[in-house]
Amino acid sequence: MQYRGNVHIPYLSVFRIPPQTCDTTHSNSFLRSVRILHPHHPLFGQMVPLVKLWEHKKKRYYIIQLPDKSHTRIPLDWADEGKTPLPEVSSNQPVLNASSIKELIILIERLKVSNSIHG
Q1: What is the count of structural domains for the chain?
Q2: Rounded CA gap, 91 and 94, in Å?
Q3: 3-27 pLDDT, tens per residue?
Q4: Please, which of 17, 54, 80, 100 could form a disulfide with 26 given CB 3.0 to 4.6 Å?
Q5: In a domain, 99, yes or no
């Protein structure tokens, strides 16, 4: 089922950010859980509840439920259905890539703005 409209977005990737509203498309998911594949994610290799699929600016994400029952979004390529062996993780793999650094910059800027408004 597809929805169009304003959606409350409480998180950016694995980092919590102040709530914001934006125009998005999202759908109810057909999967019940996904396995985290990103080697540097704290839940790597674990199955987590899938809340829904979410799309924003032509990028698709999983909205997952964390152990504390809060929700966060992760890119689709960070998880799978858990039906195949886990990929091997190289110790030479970088912790941050260009995309991760860009997300951190956005997060820091939003936190600065939020702090100046509320602080």
Answers
A1: 1
A2: 8
A3: 333 333 333 344 443 343 344 444 5
A4: 54
A5: no
